[in-house]
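Work Package 3 (structural annotation) set out to generate three-dimensional models for the target panel prioritized at the project kickoff. During this period the team completed the workflow that converts sequence records into discrete structure tokens, so that structures can be stored uniformly alongside our sequence database. As a representative example, we reproduce one entry of 251 residues exactly as it appears in the project archive.
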Amino acid sequence: MRILLLITSVLLSANASAAERVVRETIPVNADVRFSIDLHRAELEVTTGSVDAIELTAYIQHDDQEVLDEVEVHIEQSRSDVAVEVYYDDPDNQVDFDFIGLIDYEYPQIRFVIVVPDDASLDVEAHRSQLEIAAPAGRIDIDTSRTTGRITGVRNNLDLVTTRGDIDIEVQSLHDMDIEAQRSDIRLDIFGATDYTLVGDTQRGEVRVTGQDIATEERDRGMRVNHVSGSGSNFVSFDVERGNIMLNFRN
């Protein structure tokens, strides 16, 4: 049974510039739990460990205590699936045009520090956020807009969708990978890749490949790659519009 938790937290400290609340939660889970988080204007740090529970800490800061008190961290949980989301109870007089970058509500600063089991899977949605992720062994799904970050230690299937992003990815063991990017810069370090099929296109963008002899084809306002290595068993695809992708193969 899934349980909806509304996490309340205690004011731990305050200084001249900002008050802070800290949310801490220990969530017992299965080793192969699916962990999901939805971020808006936040920082996320994910690490892994030989643990049987997700350890979640959220540091929340804002100059206005009233705004700070209105932030709610929701956790929906079962042993196989945990989902985290942050809700902001904006002031009544807020005029929210955040979708075009105009807003008169000052969001609190939120930093998540999360430890998940080694074999977990991860699903992250992020807007205007910063990511620092040490990937667990399960599948990784990332969907971002206006977000920067680094993902290390990928060793399973990866699906990345990003708009106006700047993302570095370290692939420790290559599996299936799909990348869709608009107005973004994507850089991949790929270790030990021998059996894969690489197919991708850019529109008004550039693809650069180093470390292996892979031909790129110039197209009208873009580039194309179509390459098979070894058995071709791992399928890697990308579609980049008005952006750039760099694949650095390291053996």
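Residues 1-138 form one domain.
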